[in-house]
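Researcher: I need the complex structure. Ligand is fe (ii) ion. Inputs:
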Amino acid sequence: MRNTFYLNLESADNLGIGLFKYSLYPKERFIIVNSCLPKMLNYSSKEEFKKIKFANLFFDPKDNIKFLNILKEQKNVRFFEAVFKNKKYNKPVWVAITASYILTKKKEYIEGIIEDVSHHKEIEEKLFLERDFLQSLLDNIPDAVYFKDRHNRIIKVNRFYAEGAGLKPEEIIGKTDFDFFPYEQAKQMFEDDNYVLNTGRPIIGKIERTLLRNGTWNQVITTKIPIYDRRGKIIGTMGITRDMTAYANLEKERLNMLINALTVLNKALEMRDPYTSLHTQNVAFIATKIAESLGWKDNRLLAMKLAGELHDLGKISIPLEILNKPGKLTDLEYSLIQQHVQNCYELIKDIEFPFSLAEIIYQHHERLDGSGYPRHLKEEEILPEARILAISDVLESMTSYRPYREALGLEMALKELTEGRGIKYDSKIVDIIFVLIQDNHGKAFWLNY
Ligand SMILES: [Fe+2]
Ligand SMILES: [Fe+2]
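Model: Output:
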């Protein structure tokens, strides 16, 4: 059977599809046209439409040549997109031509359908525009942006991400974080992605450190959100990571300056009372060891070390005769000594630290049962850092010599901690002390550092 067009003219009209049969030889002319085609291009009648040549329908003559070339070569053309002239208005009409080429001994003609696809084209243009807009937005953001599927595979990254990784996007697509980061780090990222995928909740502004391919660490802030399909099902995650290294370094510098200034002040206290110097160094060492045993890191560890070093800074304003007085203190003298926590708090409370240093020090003489001072705080009211500091302070004081008394010894100190375990002192921290001493063959582990 000859490849001829059999669509019913009337139903094609209803569907808004133009039908035609056009003779190319011996005479160029439209033989058949349904009523839809003239309407589509704003001709008043079939007769008017039939007067024009097929080539003249094209807005760009090159499209006509291209169309005929393909048609003659392949005999059939499916959905050839071109712009046609609109008879009445200046606005061109996007059409799709599906046609067959028929060649007999004496005749040569085309028959086929023409559909108005302007509406689709408009949507397509809009989509392209939106896509281009999104892409240019993504590529110009100075943050790493990435999209992952439900299996945590990277499906899209922006330019900043690729440049930061030193790779081409195609070298990243389809991979996971395990391909680019150390195992522990990738595992954490994997868990975060899964949290977002499984709960639908975003992770906003998480600060983390990442190891770069060049071996340096950077500090980043990451936000991860779920991506949904049209039915509201989570199909992946999108993440934005901002490099905060420069800011973090600045903050570190500021912190170092603060610490240096406070260290100078602390030196003044140590010069005045050499016993305090060794005491604070030892307390800082013990407190840091406990914090390490608890798995604390970075700023929390630094807070513990600083709190240990500075916890008795408030003694700077207490007369030495009282501080080192042998024998029993009067009530007045004792209350003066107690003032050192308040003094220290007042000294540093307005300094901006990334941790509550003033409050930790303020609480270092508090006890879990409320028997401490100055505010008689209890249990959860006392910061974990202050509980560590309290135990480190007692341990160091009792095991070292003071001008007003001999050292009481490790045994006595441990007896005090055991008796007060879970009452005055945090039992978990007391237990850590015993482990640390045991690991040091039963000796004070802070004396040989
Ligand atoms: Fe103290
Ligand atoms: Fe102390």
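Model: Summary of the prediction. The radius of gyration is 41 Å.
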